[in-house]
Amino acid sequence: MKSSVIILSVVLLFFQSSIIYSQSQNTEHLEIANKVLSSVPLVDGHNDLLLHYYYYKDRKGNLDEYDISKSTSGQTDIPRLKEGKVGAQFFTVFSFDDSSLTKSMLETVDCLYRIADRYKNDFSFAYSSNDIMDAFNEGKIAMLMNIEGGEQIENSLPMLRLYYQLGVRYLTLTWNYSNDWADAGFDSARHNGLNEFGKEVVREMNRLGMLIDISHVSDKVMKDVFKTSEAPVIYSHANSRKFVNTKRNVPDDILHLLKKNNGIIMVSFVPFFVNQEYADWFDLYEAVYDSLKMGNKETAKAIIEEWKIKNPEPKVPLTDLANHLDHIKNLIGADHIGIGSDFDGFTGVVEGLEDCSKFPNLLEELARRGWTEDELKKLASENFLRVFRETEKASQKLRSGKQASMMRIEN
Ligand SMILES: [Zn+2]
Questions:
Q1: For burial by CB atoms within 10 Å, which of 107, 128, 333, 405 has the most?
Q2: Does 220 fall in a domain?
Q3: 149 CA to middle of ligand 1, Å?
Q4: How many Å apart are CA 289 and CA 130, to the nearest integer?
Q5: How far is the CA of 19 from the centre of ligand 1 (A)?
């Protein structure tokens, strides 16, 4: 009897100490994540917050109707940006009215400026790599602006330049559709990559100091950009094609070209680009959804709910996203990665990364996997800042020897 009590006590002691050990390990990794994010800003390369003002619900840019100083129904608001230790956030501006592309685009630009002004104690509008660091040192979130989809410059280099003047610091060359000068990954090829005007857009962006984003474009456009650009490029929100075979993700051979270019891939938190099982499920879900679009809304909703019970949404753990980062780091090194969540721009969720308050969870998981503090700092912002600075430097050089291009598109 006595000896069994001793054995039990020893066993209990063993379990207790292993629990304490794993708890201290957990705290240790979260501490590393928090330490890193206190010493460098976390730059998030892509966010679709403005869709809440114009698209998910037509609020006509009314900030009172979606107040981000409080908790919102979406994935982004100021309390959660702070909790997530976000230091710099790119926000996408866009045309939302096909009959008035420029006017609607300018209204979203104005909306972002109004947000910056309304919440000026929390945000500081940023136009340069130095501005990001200044905002961080003042304890504010740097707000940056980007355009997703090159068609929104309406085949006009003067408009590209004016958007730069307004503060746009990256342009994604295409969205999901090929435009008049670049092919999209999800669309059929119209130009076999970039046509001559597309190459001139890239050169003009180099001259201006605007970052070139090759998320969404076809593989051939990616290769053409690497050949054309005189500055490093970014993928503002994309993942590795090794895990999900979609044109929105980047294959290994092109990741090697990215390393040669000294650019970065900022990984997204979009579950259908992170996990293949989820991507397959989502394809089916979309097909059901699309087939019901035209019918009665209530009936369609009921059919979709029933379909979802029979076909449960697969779970996507945070470890799956960490696998993308591990793979890219192992393949091309820690100097070519970053984060571009795409919050408020997709449905579904990666568990543990539900909204912008959760960024430290990702760094904690990577610390657990043995990533060093230096590597985590590179991921958080140092790589992005390097690319931004090199782009600014290339621009200074190019502006001194080159006039603004007046190339027109040939139809
Ligand atoms: Zn996108």
A1: 107
A2: yes
A3: 9
A4: 45
A5: 42
